[in-house]
Please model this.
Amino acid sequence: MKREWSAVVFAMAFPTVMTWLYFVVLARPISRTPIEDSSQSSANNWAQAAYAAGKAIQFSFPLLYLVLAEPTSLQPRRPHFKGIGLGIGFGLLVGVGMVALYSVGLENWLAGTGAATMIRLKIEEFNAASPGRYAALASFLAVAHSLLEEYYWRWFVFGRLRRLVSIPTAIALSSLAFMAHHVVVLGRFFPNDFWSAAVPLSLCIAMGGAFWAWLYNRSGSIYATWVSHLLVDAAIMAVGYDMVFLGKAG
Model:
């Protein structure tokens, strides 16, 4: 039991610590303007290296733990798609709603926060400040990274927690842990609007995580939560593209 709790607590805390490291500690100073000349480079090799190392540790930890602690639990299973319709429906509802809200009002509000400048500075650090490179980064985050997050947060973190505590408690704990590293990210994007922007948006992420944990518990399918997560992330990246490259906030 103690070993199980130690693994789960580490899994819940590690992503936030690593996000703080590569998103805040190793970040470039924010008191400058984004680079407009594509011949210049503001890539941050230290932040990129920390991001890569952090993600490698994060996503390998569940398998490494199970190999060492419960090797017999790693049995191949045939994939199934129970709950996929519900997952798609939720993803479309949130994604389309997000884009619609952005189009009818949030764009003007975001333009006043300076978030687009902060996002552009960050994607410069990751060498993705052109439309093509941003699209490549967005595709990776929406497709591959969302799958890895579902494997990590729902299959492993929530999956282990529900063996230790009640289902509602497991949903709450896993969702708040899932939210935590997003607080660091959004706090960086909205440094002057932490309580009015970063915190409310983070709570929305926690609610999304809670729905995905509930859906995973109901369906037993990581694919249902993945496609839902993918659709939401695609909408977020589309809004980010408009903010940085096209919209009033850019």
About this structure: The chain is about 80% helix and 0% strand.
